[in-house]
Structures are given as C-alpha cells and as structure tokens.
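hey all, quick one before standup. I had two proteins in the batch that finished overnight and I want to keep them in one place so we stop losing track of which output belongs to which input. First protein below, input sequence then structure tokens straight from the run.
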Amino acid sequence: MSEVIGVRFRPAGKVYFFLPGELPIEQYDHVLVETVRGMEIGKVAYGRREVCPNIIAPYLPLKQVLRVATAADLALRETLQTKAQDAYQICLGKIEQHRLGMRLLDAEYTFDAAKLIFQFTADGRVDFRELVRDLASVFRTRIELRQVGVRDEAKMVGGLGGCGREFCCSTFLGEFLPVTVKMARDQNLSLNPTKISGVCGRLLCCLNYELEEYGSSASLSLVEMGSLVQTNAGHGKVTFVDRRRDIARVRLQDSGRTQEFPLDELVVIVLEEDDGVMPAHIPSLILPAKEEEDD
C-alpha cells in the first residue's frame, strides 16, 4: 500500500496522485507540484490515504509534492491568471488575422511562467505554425497550442443541459468515461439521437453513471420487451419495461388490456423448442394483432 494525496488543477477536473512525503498536507490545501506541463499549483481533493498498488500502477512513477503553497504563491497565481486573460484576447486577434478555423477556449500560464498554453477546438486539422511564431514574438515565452475535443469544450465552457441543470462534466465528473447506445437501450430510453445526446453532440454522460441503478434489485430479472409472462391476472406479453420503477407493462391474452405489474411478481414463460409445439400446460399466447403502446 502506498500513501498518496489526490490533487486537482481545475474545478471538477481529473484527480492526479502525488506523494506527500512528510509535508503537513490536509484536504483543500493548495500545493505546488511538478507536472508534465511544468510547475503548477493544485488543490488537494482528498488528503493522505493508503491506495492499492494496482490503482496507481498506470501513474507510476509518482512525483513528490514540492511544498504547500504560500500566500505569495497564491498571489502570483492570481497575477498569472490576469495575464492569461490578456493573452487570450491577443490570441483571438491573431487567430482572426490569420483567418484560422479554430475556436479558442482558454489561455493559461504555468506557475513558473515558462509556458503559455492555449486550448482550442476545430472541425479538422489546423496549420497554426505562423500563429505560434506570432504569439512567441509577442509573449517572449514558450507557446503551446492544444486541440481538444467537443466534450472537453463543453466541460470548460459550461452551460445548462436538457434537464435544466448545469453540465455534469463541468460540475462533478472528473473525467470522461465511454458511453454507448447500449446503455440507453438498457435504460429503456428513446434511441432518438436528439434525446440522448448532450449539447456537445455526444451521448449523455449520465447514461454511464446512472446505468448501475438499473442493474439493482428487481432489475436483475429476466423480464424483457416481448417476454411471455405469467401474472396474477393471467398470461400476457411484455410491451414495456421500466427498470427505474421496477415495473413492466403487460398486454393480457384474455382481455387484450395492458396493465402494469411489479417485475418481481412476473414469471417468465420459457417455451420448449420442440418443433414449435407449445407445452400442454401453457395456453396459446398468440395475441390478437394490436399496436404496442408507446413508451
């Protein structure tokens, strides 16, 4: 077991592991660390804790925290953030001057001011070599232009989703996880792209982290759309499954009516594969032709 701390460099950003050593570091402290981008100040997302080696294996070797940030360090960071805002405006002008098809999102200085990083999105590859030369001549420091994806753009810009709340990615999701259409199908959601896609145009992040709830309690039952089931009102066919509420809509064979039943009260009827002959103890479940109700 290794003792580490978790550090974030942006609100709702990814947590990175660092070795605290003997430094008196507590949660929410600001610390000075060295990253692949240079010297940076981050906020401790969680304090000292023992972590299994297999969790930190992808991040090895871990770097040591240099020191706890002082008031002077925080004041310097504020100054650099102000300078970065000015740099952002200058870069916007240069982009327009060079007529480049890119959308500038952010400008940021590393803590030692050795590098100025611009992040942008674009529909394709952008030749920004001339832009880098212009910016280097203006700021007299190392310039890095980094192209990010549309999901990162939504995370950085922020906004309101279709649910009326702030984007999950810009408020609490530390990193993006893969999202598939199957996750929407497992949650009985409409597969209309406009309904299961976010403002970024990608599948909604909540399809991933809400999926676990649909695999609990009665949701583990074998009841699916089209299943033949036995209910306390007779035999029928499942026309809709709501795993959120653990219920299913069943169109009954005798009356042709549709009723809702708890999933744990339904018994799935498995027909024997014997030349299509149905077991004698199960009546015919061929239902009259009728359009199934919409979700």
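OK second protein, same deal, sequence then tokens:
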Amino acid sequence: MAYSKAIANAIVDFLRDDDWHYEFDENKEIIRCGVNIKCKLKSTRLIIDLREDKYLVFATISLSVDEENRAEMARLLNMINYTMVFGNFEMDESDGEVRFRFAVDCDDCLPSREVVKDSILIPALMMEKYGDAIVKVLMGFATAKEAYEETRKK
C-alpha cells in the first residue's frame, strides 16, 4: 500500500520544526517518536501509520495486560471511550496491548500544521490523563469503576 508523500511531508515538517526526535521508516510507512507524560507510565511511544488518504496516530505503552485483568481493562476502556470526542482507547485481546488511536482523514486535502499538532498531542495527552487508571487496572490494584472514578476527580 502506497502512502501519500505529501501527508508524510506535512507531518515530518511539523516534527522537524517543533524539534521532535523521530524516525521515519519509509519501507514500513510509519513514523515513530516518543513523548514524556506526567503519570505513572512516564512516557508513551507514538506510531504514525501513513496511508494514501489518511494517517493514524497510535499512542502505545510498553506494558501489556495479563489475561486475568483483560476483562476489567476492557470495562475501563469502555467507560473512558464513552466520553471520548476524538479518538479512542483499544486493547488487543490476544496479547493485552493497550493503545490510543487517532485517525485523520486527508481525502482531497492536506492536514494543516494545527491538525498535525493536535493529532500527535491528543493521543499523548489521553495517555497522560488516563495512564494512572490504566496502570491500576493493569496491575490489579483497582477495579475499572474505581480507577475511572479517580479520573473524573482530576
């Protein structure tokens, strides 16, 4: 699948101009970078998946949910997603990977600098906002409801 070089250039221009450290893997058609966040996770990896008429930004964490905690994590992510305006959290049931996904439709247009900025920062900010709740459920320290209620107090 071929990616749009114009979309890739808009993203790379933002990252370069904003002094981000990133890797562009043209063979895999992805851009990778990381960002420090203020929660127990400490950081999140961002993967920008380039497509022909869109791109997706995934914020990932290095921890995965053990099988016995996956149902509770799914409950937490469902509670969070119900209030989400842009993007969503998801979990791979087979390996417990948790990530935040944000998609940008670029059909017949190029993303502006502001759109690129938001598409990269929103996933990182969502990991920051909900990271402590994710860790608590991932480790079995709290139920989904308990962890979610703590996010509502902030």
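Flagging for whoever picks this up: The first strand starts at residue 22 and ends at 25. Residues 113-138 form the longest helix (26 residues).
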